[in-house]
Amino acid sequence: MAASNRDIARVFDEIADLLEIEGDNAFRVRAYRNAARLIEGLGVSVGDMVAKQEDLTELPGIGKDLAAKIREIVETGTCAAREELRKKLPSTILTLLRIPGLGPKRVQTLYRALDISTPEQLAAAVREGKVRELPGFGEKTEALLREALGAAASTAGQRFLLAAAAREAEPLRAYLAETPGVKQVVIAGSYRRAKETVGDIDLLATARGSKAIMERFCAYPEVKQVLAQGDTRATVVLRSGLQVDLRVVPQSSFGAALYYFTGSKAHNVAARRIAQRLGLKVNEYGVFRGRRRIAGDTEEAVLRAIGLPYIPPELRENLGEIEAAQAGRLPDLVTPEDLRGDLRVTAPSTRAASEALLDAARQHGLDYVAFVLSARDLDPGRAAEWRAEIDRLNARSDGIVVLKGIEVEIRESGELAASESLLSDFEIVIAAVHDRFDLPRERQTARLLQAIAHPAVTMLAHPTGRLIGTRPEMDLDMPAVIRAARDHGCLLELNAQPERIDLPDVYCRVAKDEGAPIAINSGAQNAAELENLTWGVGQARRGWLEARDVVNTRPLDHLRRLLRLP
DNA sequence: GCCGTTTTCGGCCCGACTGTTTTCAGTCG
Q: What is the spatial distance between Cα A195 and Cα A185, in angstroms, rounded to a whole number?
């Protein structure tokens, strides 16, 4: 199987880890890490670029050496440089890096002094009291490690779905905001950038004095453990395992701190380089010329000071947004308020549930909703009965229109698992892969292409098939799928269920570039789950989508024309 | 290892917190 972008990124991350433990040049290590992030964020397959003999050194941060390594990985599936490093250091040693409190230097010390390369060996050494004797370690560090090793299996390195993180972070934010003397509390970090998963929560507060809020933070009932507590910064772990950092800054630094703690790291580094060239310094307290602060109270002011317009958080990944900002070509990103409809809600089974859902949809400002039945076990008689019920509902409902939708499985052969006559009675026909996610790339791609080309199909459901943290994306030629969708007028679903968020951001961007229309759907099973649309819009914004790229921002009559509906 | 309207060599973002330190290294974000 050809190496995917993620495979290549993993190789580079491993090389970076191993070089770091070896004590190699930190900037060399960073070059590998930057390359890994770049490749991961690329919508096109690097393997395809190699096949087409494109010049990889055109990519920012990829030079002759890394380009050659990419070609090697694509063509041979392995990388000699990594194999050499693995000979010097056991690959299990990388698991030690994920233990909180252990970085490359300490891992190297453990390996050199005690031949430790696994968490089990480390646990044994801790029990025997050997670790505290090592240079750079002590009793406290040993105790920290003992604790971390106990918890390692359950929480370390765990990432939380954005929606799950929101359920923890929003109440905590509200709790902190009630602290006397506190002006504002906001959530920064990858949460603010709407990444589909977050590793921790970064809270930022402005207050007169930091003592009260720090104490209140550490006393929050959900706090399981306080990892660090200083004057302006503290770190805790909640019962759920979610780690939360709180920073307190003066009001005059709020914008600079928000900008800084929203990241991403790669974006911040790039922005600071721009500042550096202008003879300025950017940190979390402001923008400085010499010792004089020239900006800091708002993000707009910070960006203006380094010659840039405001860049929405979701774009801050150093994936071209800085260049676009400099050129005045930032997208006008889609917002939740732009949505006029939702093209996939599971059809409720009772009239009461239907009306509750439509009420909620109205509150979300929607004008139309597609109720979707599964084609599985659906006989023509029942389908007709259901459609009559929807007609009755439409006759009664004030202003909101229900569209009749059906979801049909795409068989391994690419054929649809329902008759054309059944499908022709529905306005929205959603084709979905529900099995055989493991087909080889060519067959999987052909399977989707055939479904997309089917004249009855309105929309391709959750195109990559991923379940975040559970099931990887299908191996697909996604640019080919996206182009086919455009050519056949087939919508690409951005399914906003928190565990799907599928279409992922990188492909949203490809779809935009190729001119393929996207529908952001909640996939809601009940009224409350219409909230999913928020996560869908977040991912769409990460994918640079504007309202005009998203079909369900259109009024219903436009949508009907677009889909050639009566 | 990458990169260059200052440069093909010499740079490469910046600060808080902790613990082990007698002035700072390591980790983290």
A: 20
